[in-house]
Amino acid sequence: MAVNVLGLIELSNPSAFEEYRKQVSATVEQYGGRVTQRGVRGEVFWNELECKPFSAYVQLEFPTAMDAQRWAQSPEYLALVPIRNQAMQLTLFSMLPST
User: Fold this and answer.
1) Do residues 56 and 6 touch, judged by C-beta distance below 8 A?
2) Is 28 exposed, middle or buried (0-12, 13-18, 19+ CB in 10 A)?
């Protein structure tokens, strides 16, 4: 069953972000995933969980939860973490359908 991964992004360095963005899609594709949406945050209606501010988001789709996990822990993606850390703060999580 397909699983989505959502990343909440707070940019801190636009040039590092562009470097990261140029490389990250290839790592996603290598593990069977694809970018399904990118965008900027709109109006926040409720924030009872007190989420930290974020300015953008990305949604990925993988064939299975295992594929998403393999990608997130892959050497190819982990090699990008130093660039990612320069570019942004990120909250990344999978979204599993309810049964």
Assistant:
1) no
2) buried
Look up the pTM and report it: 0.92
Contacts of 6 (CB under 8 A, 6+ apart): 57, 58, 59, 60, 92, 93, 94, 95
CATH classification of 3-42+50-95 is 3.30.70.100, yes or no?
Answer: yes
| Residues forming beta bridges with residue 27, ordered by sequence position | none
How much of the chain, in percent, has pLDDT values that exceed 70? 99
Sequence ranges of the domains in the chain: 3-42+50-95
> What tens digit of pLDDT does each residue of 19-64 get?
999 999 999 999 999 999 999 999 999 999 999 999 999 999 999 9
